[in-house]
Amino acid sequence: MTETTGKTALILGATGGAGYETAKALAARGWRIRAMHRDPQKVSALLPDAAWVPGDAMRQDDVVAAAVGCDVIFHGVNPPGYRDWAGRVLPMAEATIAAARRTGARIVLPGTVYNFGPDAFPLLREDDAQAPATRKGRIRVALEQRLHRAAKAEGVPVLILRAGDFFGPHVSGNSWFTSALVKAGRPVRSVLYPGRPDIGHAWAYLPDFAETVAQLVARDDLPRFARFHLGGHWFDRGVEIAERLRVVAGVPDAPIRRMPWALLPLLAPFSVTLRELREMRYLWQVPVRLDNAALVDLLGSEPHTPIDTALRHALQGMGCLPPAVTSDFAAA
Question: What CA–CA distance (Å, rounded) separates 316 from 75?
């Protein structure tokens, strides 16, 4: 799909999965894409048609300068490896808010389920109370509260699109798909599943997420503060994604291993990422599903790639499956 919008989007976090796919989806609709990175020459080949500018998302002046003339600022920046959320998440948000306030651009934030605690499970709606059970969850709540104040008191348009765990052809290390299920650059020999097999779990295919963002920001009827939930791919039996993954990979009998949660306390002192992942275990012990009724009511339908196609593209993009290979088992 190609539309001529004449609009410009600044992508913060263009090297990450959500930012990269959103840039592609917007560009396909005729948006001009501007991407900010501390070392643009190092990463510019990733999105060769984007206008890359130097800058640090922690520096307000850099973000304000990069946002000049932009209609949307996609705030897809996260501390790598779940590190230093307390010291970086809110300062980066303040830089983006300052830029949006100066330019009138709408901020787009990928939302997480971390914001919610067990009182909101198993079905999450946009207006449910956010009572997180973790430190990272409290930081994400503070982030959304700050964006809400920016919209209501400072006139900054905001869109939050919340989704389950991301997977896709281009995904960063801040993902259970790459941190647990499979390893990038390696053929699938086994699958590591973090949750209880019979507990439901929600996943979001990044190109579907990005297409949803593109459809939403194209509308003129969004409220100043808009928040929607993406249903994504829901599995009543959470382990089904691992079962489908090995089928798509052409190894239907590959073992599905359980996450060694009991060992994480012993390994956590040596790995920040493992320590941070351990905090999110509760999301694998209960079903957590997102209610997308409001989104479907607005758009008519939710962008949704069939799961085997999505998994195949994800594995190919991660170098786990050759691009030319299509498993004979994929249609099973």
Answer: 27
Pick the CATH number of 8-174+203-233+287-304 from 2.30.30.240, 3.40.50.720, 3.30.465.10, 3.40.50.1950: 3.40.50.720
Helix (H), strand (E) at residue 6: none
Distance between CA atoms of residues 164 and 241, nearest Å: 13
pLDDT at residue 271, as a whole number = 58
Count CB atoms within 10 A of the CB of residue 306: 10
Task: Give the up-direction half-sphere exposure of residue 251: CA atoms within 13 A in the CB hemisphere.
Answer: 15
Partners of 289 in the β-ladder: 123
| Tokens of residue 250, six digits | 């052409």
Evaluate whether 83 touches 274 at the Cβ level (below 8 Å): no
> Domain segments of the chain: what residues?
8-174+203-233+287-304
Write the single-letter amino acid at 269.
P
- In angstroms, the CA 318 to CA 55 distance is 27
> Hunting for tokens 């897809």 — which residue is that?
76
* Threshold 0.70, pTM exceeds: yes
- Which residues have CB under 8 Å from 181's CB, separation 6+? 191, 192, 193, 241, 242, 245
Confidence (pLDDT) at 329: 40
HEC profile of 18-36: HHHHHHHHHHHCCCEEEEE
Average pLDDT, consecutive stretches of 10 residues, N- to C-terminus, the chain (332 residues): 77 95 97 96 94 97 98 91 79 97 98 94 97 92 98 98 96 80 94 95 98 97 98 98 97 94 65 67 93 98 98 96 57 40
Closest CA to 254 of 245, 262, 267: 245
User: Alpha carbon 37 to chain centroid distance?
Assistant: 18
Q: Which residues of 157-177 are buried (b: 16+ CB within 10 A; e: fewer)?
A: bbbbbbbbbbbbbbbbebbbb
